[in-house]
Amino acid sequence: MRTPRDPRVHNAFLQKKGYKPELRLYAHGQGYDLVERPFFLADETLKIQPGMNLTIHPRLQRRVWAGICDNYLMTESGPGECLHQTPQEIIVVPEHWLTHGKVL
User: What is the pTM of this model?
Assistant: First the structure.
């Protein structure tokens, strides 16, 4: 899988592009308990295996906040197609929903 499991790699990429570093868990397994292992952390020992549902939800932050959330079922050859049918488009949050740069 091309998404780095070590958040230091992810953050180095973001900072190189002028964005703030990601301070939360941006990718993990997802199942009955919603957030499950494997976590995309430097010290995670659980290997990604076929049949696992992984959610990837990085965010970008400069003056505004932007995020995505995609789920992928792992196969023998890597991640399959995205599991949901949400349109891949930018959704603009009205400015009046924001207070000091945070969504209400």
Answer: 0.66
* Amino acid identity for residue 91 in this structure: I
Asked if residues 53 and 29 have their Cβ atoms less than 8 Å apart, the reply is: yes
Listed in sequence order, the residues at least 6 apart from 85 whose beta carbon sits closer than 8 Å to its beta carbon are: none
Neighbours of 57 (CB within 10 A): 16
Using left for φ > 0, alpha for ψ between -120 and 50, and beta otherwise, residue 80 falls in beta
Alpha helix (H) residue ranges in the chain: 7-16
Q: Digits of tens for pLDDT over the chain (104 positions)? A: 444 467 788 888 888 988 888 878 888 888 888 889 998 887 888 899 999 999 888 777 666 666 778 899 999 998 888 888 887 776 766 767 766 655 54
- Domain chopping of the chain, boundaries: 7-103
Rounded Cα–Cα distance for residues 101 and 104 (Å): 9
Bridge partner residues of 53 (DSSP): 73
What top-level class would CATH report for the domain 7-103? alpha beta
